[in-house]
Amino acid sequence: MPIKYYEYLIIGAGSAGLQMAYFLQQSKSNYIVIERAETAASFFKKFPRRRELISFNKVNSIFDDPEIVLRWDWNSLLTDDYSFPFRNFSKRLYPLADELVSYLEAFANRYNLNICYNTNINRVRRAKDGFFEVCDSNGIIYRCKVLIVATGFSKPYIPDIPGIELTENYETVSLDCNTFTGQRVLILGKGNSAFEIADIAIETAAQVHVASPSSLTLAWKSRHPGHVRANNNRILDTYQLKLLNGTLDCHVNNIIQNPDGTFVVTISYVHADGEVEELVYDRVIRCTGFMFDNSLYAPECRPHRILGGKLPAITPYWESTNVADLFFAGTLMQGRDFKRSSSAFIDGFRYNIRTLYRYLKERYQGIKREARKLQATPEILKEAILERACRTSALWTQFGYLCDVFVLHPTDEVSWYEELPIQALQEGEFSLEPHYYSLTFEWGEWKGDVMAIERHPRSSQAYTNVFLHPILRKYSYGELLSEHHILEDLFGIYDSNGERGSVLRRSGRSIKQYHQEEHEIPLERYLEKQLSSKAIPV
Fold first, then answer.
1. Do 236 and 298 sit in the same domain of this protein?
2. From 120's CA, which of 201, 305, 387, 446 has a CA 20 to 30 Å away?
3. Is the pLDDT confidence value at 526 over 60?
4. 492 Cβ neighbours under 8 A, 6+ residues apart
5. Do the domain assignments include residue 538?
6. Within 10 Å of residue 115's Cβ, how many Cβ atoms?
7. What is the pLDDT of residue 173?
């Protein structure tokens, strides 16, 4: 039986597998990508069904800096020189899935990634020597020390509802609106796939209901890109303006099919004092999403799952919690920021993968993560922090999830580490250090109408900011000592750099004066106080 050996093996040649392969290729690592389809990006050849993505592709910007531009480019993979942007493949704000497929296939070819196509894996096991053995249907065994799973959600999530087998499903339902003419339609689920189908059905259906136990969450309100997006939610107008359509907060208790082909669906409402009702529909369509499939893995290396089996359980560095040396890349990385940051999407997990790559090189090859060195003065740190806040796309996109860390040494030197999981700090990394800081971008709390936020545009009240803004936190031996909020800015600019500041327009104060008074001076004063005080908690 043929056996092949690799240091790193990646399962899946989607966007995540290609991103990890790029980094390994650049460092001339011994790796391979195994892909069952004949080309890269096979998932996007079928999904989303309507062929329009929900990932933004903002081609035109007031900025020219390619690092800043990545904040609004949600589809490009990372390269060392920004040389392969997605905008060369699509100019649409909501690009087509086929355009993403073309981009990813071209990316794999451009960088000559080591991908083995048309290879179907039928078993993953772990040998006694600790190596993984990935077995394909041709009898070839691929042995590797580090296994990186980038398969995405490869299996439909089917809720445990009596009669669920009677339903149609998102994967195969017709997208021809004429097939819904005059029908009463129930769609199970309240995610984007459910609203994608509902938006088609409302053109001709007599009635469309979208149902799940949880209330609807809109992305523009939650600021999470995975919640329901504006481009598919016309049904909400037809619900609130009384066109017989609606979103039901309810449990579906069972589904029964009548002899005439119609369905009786028993539901219990969540917000109606436990009311139970039987409703009749002509069609019931399951749009309940997808999940991680761990059936390929032998018992000794089968990763634990969370959220009802949807996602693998992971450590802060995306390693399986129960299988050492088994890591996850791509949308499977979202177990730690589920429905909060952007790890479910390319614009988020591309940065996670870069961080994971650096972690793997340090852990398995002894190549330490790079740390920039600075002098521990308020002026130098202020300039470095504001420069970073103005340019970073990683911390901007992975808000509240990735952070930069500044470690102060007794020599008055600072080691600056970029893009680490904030949860790694919270769970003990750097906890032996007496004096260090984290830099993140985060949203503030707001309980009211997000279209009518009360703002306080002064640095003294920056802690009340609701918009995305930088936060610097001071730690000692793992304990949080203090924090400083940098005043939010409409353009994401926090210093008086002339090139960046030239795109702005301010009334009253000059641009330079504004940034000095509201961003630079408050941060420098905070650092003066913190650097002069004892770091050890009292």
1. no
2. 305
3. yes
4. 68, 71, 390, 396, 468
5. no
6. 19
7. 97
Are the CB atoms for 36 and 119 separated by under 8 Å? yes
Amino acid at 77: L
Token code pair at residue 486: 């940098």
CA atoms within 13 Å, Cβ hemisphere of 87: 14
Residue 537 lies inside a defined structural domain of this protein = no
In order of 192, 205, 238, 533, the CA distances from 164 in angstroms are 20, 22, 27, 63
- 284 and 295, same domain (yes or no): no
pTM of this prediction exceeds 0.85: yes
Tokens for 424, please give them.
């790694």
Q: Give the three-state DSSP class for 6.
A: strand
Nearest Cα neighbor of 41 from 106, 86, 87 is: 106
Give pLDDT tens digits for 99-137. Answer: 999 999 999 999 999 999 999 999 999 999 999 999 999
C-beta of residue 483 within 8 angstroms of C-beta of residue 473:
yes
Same domain, 376 and 518: yes
Residues 385 and 523 in one domain: yes
pLDDT digits (tens, 9 = 90+) for 19-72: 999 999 999 999 999 999 999 999 999 999 999 999 999 999 999 999 999 999
Rounded (5°) CA angle 65-67-70: 110
Residue 439 parent element (H or E): strand 436-442
118 shares its domain with 194? no
Distance (Å, rounded) from C-alpha 164 to C-alpha 253? Answer: 10
- Asked if residues 515 and 501 have their Cβ atoms less than 8 Å apart, the reply is yes
pLDDT score, position 250: 97
pLDDT in tens, 327-377: 999 999 999 999 999 999 999 999 999 999 999 999 999 999 999 999 999
User: How many domains, in total, are found in the chain?
Assistant: 3
Last residue of a domain, one of 304, 334, 365: 365
- Residue carrying structure tokens 């802060």: 316
Would you give the distance in Å from CA 224 to the centre of its chain? Answer: 9
| pLDDT tens digits for range 466-493 | 999 999 999 999 999 999 999 999 999 9
Residue-range definition of the domain harbouring residue 480? 372-532
Let me know whether 379 and 442 are in one domain.
Answer: yes
Residue 396 near residue 73, CB atoms below 8 Å: no
Domain closes at, from 261, 288, 315: 288
Q: Do residues 524 and 515 lie in contact, with contact meaning Cβ atoms separated by under 8 Å?
A: no
Largest CA distance in the chain: 82
CATH code of the domain containing 170:
3.50.50.60
